[in-house]
Specification:
- There is one protein chain.
- The protein is α+β, with helices and mostly antiparallel strands.
- It has a domain at 3-52 and 114-187 and 278-360: FAD/NAD(P)-binding domain (3-Layer(bba) Sandwich).
- The chain has twelve helices and 20 strands.
- The protein has helices at residues 14-24, 40-46, 57-64, 74-78, 117-129, 176-180, 239-244, 247-258, 306-326, 334-362, 367-382, 384-391; strands at residues 2-10, 32-35, 52-56, 83-85, 87-92, 98-102, 112-116, 134-137, 142-147, 152-156, 161-169, 185-202, 209-214, 219-224, 229-236, 265-268, 272-281, 285-286, 289-291, 297-298.
- Strands 5, 6, 12, 13, 14, 15, 16, 17 and 20 form a nine-stranded mixed beta sheet that branches. Strands 1, 2, 8, 9, 10, 11, 18 and 19 form an eight-stranded mixed beta sheet that branches. Strands 3-7-4 form a three-stranded antiparallel beta sheet.
- Strand 9 and strand 10 form a beta hairpin.
- Helix 1 packs parallel to helix 5 and helix 9 (306-326) packs antiparallel against helix 10 (334-362).
- The longest helix has 29 residues, at 334-362.
- Residues 43-50 and 377-383 have low confidence and may be disordered.
- This is 2-octaprenyl-6-methoxyphenol hydroxylase.
Length: 398
């Protein structure tokens, strides 16, 4: 026998959980299944990932509108574990142009926050467990998928069968389910870089400052964490060389690239690396299928916009599904999915172009571009209205 659901979400990490919660709280009669390959116990122990994530101010506001339980929002539950970004320092190695972005100058309490993914994962799963209309199926995978005119049929790895009106892929880049449904992924730009990720400790307290430094090989970001740690995202052409260094020599290389604004770097944790490409699904919808987050697009980590853009996918799709359900429309119909595609197109295009143009500008060593970007940083530093226009998209005010 097939179990009936109104919505099935493939992927039980941040995007998938946020989508399920955003819909469930507004539609308590809506039956939702979340299918996740990894065991929930694994998530609680070590998080969805070894990394931390930056949430823009706009994302904090969106999480505040999703309930954790009857008394608290997701944001209220996350906030005590989040490290606040009050100040962002932007510089170009070897040039005088520096931009200081301050929450106080924008009349904000913060520009964003940094949260450990393990903490986010634990909170989201606790919220899911309190929703009687969400079934979180893990560890579980889809072994067979068929779509008809009116529904999607799924067979799972435990041989159970589900049927739903709408299938959502929230399972990351190059989603295998999306590809089975006819979605193709395009590499819009192979940056020929990899991001080296690690936590580092500095002698000088960060005091809620984040740093973005553009070097000859790529951007280097340091985000504030608790206990005076910093989350390092270092984009380089040859990650193997950095990964092979012992701690002393790695920190010495980092010091040469970053400088001494945080004093001496004293310690570095486990280092991992992953290649950087700008990739996008050829369409965010298909027959009875919608894509959100990295399943729809994967950005370069410059300016930390990946999950923030994905969360806007989630909120938009949740609002459309809720409206459609209240009007008794077919949740997987072409009309409903077309609304999602149309409402997300401008924001997606804007952020893809912004991150791609920033990287292409600051990773280019041609002298005219060096002069132009240094002049641009000086102009941003000198004119407050220009700074506000520059930072507005990265705050998630869209």
């Amino acid at each position: 026998m097939e179990k009936q659901y109104d919505l099935v979400i493939i992927g039980g990490a941040m995007s998938g959980c946020c989508l399920a919660l955003a819909i469930a709280q507004q539609l308590p009669q809506c039956k939702i299944a979340v299918i996740e390959q990894k065991a929930a116990q694994h998530h609680r122990k070590s998080g969805f990932d070894a990394r931390s994530i930056a949430l823009a101010q706009g994302s904090c506001q969106k999480l505040h509108r999703i309930a954790f339980n009857a008394e608290q929002s997701l944001w209220q539950k996350i906030a005590p574990s989040a490290e606040t970004i009050r100040h962002i320092h932007v510089s170009d190695q070897g040039h005088s142009g520096i931009v200081e972005l301050s929450a106080q100058a924008l009349n904000l309490s913060r520009l964003g926050v940094v949260v450990e993914l393990a903490t986010m994962g634990k909170i989201l799963l606790e919220a899911i467990a309190q929703q009687p209309n969400i079934d979180y199926l893990a560890p579980m995978s889809v072994s067979e998928l068929q779509r008809s005119d009116n529904s999607v049929q799924l067979q799972l790895s435990d041989h159970s069968r589900l049927q739903t009106a709408l299938l959502v892929c929230a399972d990351g880049n190059h989603s295998s389910i999306a590809q089975q449904c006819g979605i193709r992924y395009q590499t819009l730009n192979d940056y020929q870089q990899s991001a080296v990720i690690a936590n580092v400790k500095s002698a000088v307290a960060h005091n809620g400052q984040a740093f973005e430094r553009f070097t000859a090989q790529g951007p280097l970001a340091l985000l504030p964490l608790s206990d005076n740690l910093l989350s390092l995202v270092w984009c380089v052409k040859d990650p193997a060389a950095l990964l092979a260094l012992d701690e002393t020599h790695f920190l010495a290389q980092l010091q040469r690239q970053f400088g001494w604004r945080l004093g001496k770097f004293e310690q570095v944790g486990k280092r991992i690396a992953y290649p950087l490409k700008l990739q996008q699904a050829d369409r965010p919808i298909h027959h009875r299928l919608a894509l959100v987050g990295n399943a729809a697009q994967t950005l370069h980590p410059i300016a930390g916009q990946g999950f923030n853009l994905g969360l806007r996918d989630v909120v938009c799709l949740a609002n459309i599904v809720v409206d459609a359900a209240r009007q008794r429309q077919d949740l997987g119909s072409s009309a409903v999915l077309q609304r999602y595609q149309q409402q997300r197109q401008a924001d997606r295009t804007r952020m893809i172009e912004l991150t791609d143009s920033l990287l292409n500008t600051f990773a280019n060593d041609l002298l005219p571009l060096q002069i132009a970007r240094n002049a641009g940083l000086l102009a941003l530093s000198a004119f407050a209205p220009l700074r506000q226009q520059f930072i507005k998209p990265t705050l998630g005010w869209l």
